Amino acid sequence: MALTHTLHPKPTISVVIKPFHYCPSSSSLPLYSRKFQNGEIFLGTTFSRIQTYHNPLPALTRRLFLPSVSGLWDALTSGNSARDAVMAIRKGMQLFRQRDVLGSVVEFDKAIELDPRQKAYLWQRGLSLYYLDRYEEGAEQFRLDVAQNPNDTEESIWCFLCEAQLYGVGEARKRYLEVGRDSRPVMREAYNMFKDGGDPEKLVTAFSSGQPNEYFYASLYAGLYYESQNEPDAAKVHLIAACQSAYGSRSDDYMAALAKVHCKCRNWNLN
Prior knowledge:
Layout: E1 3-5, E2 15-17, E3 31-32, E4 34-35, E5 40-43, E6 46-49, E7 66-67, H1 69-77, H2 80-97, H3 101-114, H4 123-131, H5 135-148, H6 153-167, H7 169-174, H8 185-196, H9 200-207, H10 212-228, H11 232-244, H12 246-250, H13 254-265
Antiparallel strand pairs: 1-2, 2-4, 3-7, 5-6
Helix pairs in contact: 1-2, 2-3, 3-4, 4-5, 4-6, 5-6, 6-8, 8-10, 9-10, 10-11, 11-13
């Protein structure tokens, strides 16, 4: 459900907030993904329309990683540290997209040093830590994020992925973070698959004729599920399929970049 959030006494800006990382106290929340009602995304101090490969698609992804209006305002008015922290996060995200995972963590850690409030919301850092095999730190990061937003399906899954590497699938499932109902059918099915066990092939089949982004997410999480089960060959099939899908190959979604990072880290050739 979209929420309308108006900030006072700062300049009044009405925005539609996707329902993750929501906290009534905006001054303590550095990051949000925000989509304006005209379809534009707030990106720094400019507007950038979402890029899709043909026609605009339903906004299924929660990963349009942009500074919040309130967080940006605080950064512009609260001194160099807050501004520099926002810039470090943006640079870290850019480096991750460029497959420089270690460099991205350096920037995310720099942001935390500059503005410690950032740590509880830096799920991007958790993703990078996973690919550096720093699973304990990654799980801690995702648990911090879910504590702020108990309705975050993907961070619950990523916490499981980290803890499956640390403790094994059985123990990770006992520690599984239960969250609220996701509005996206594909992510509800993926969440239940990781939580209770299931068949990744059925997940992909169920969404193979759906929207391109649904097929991408089904393939992505099918591959990640197989990786948690220590089945690298099956994981490879689905992660490469995610990368080569229409959405995965052309979208600016951060998770499309993540799929490519995954293949690079596993030395899988996308060609």
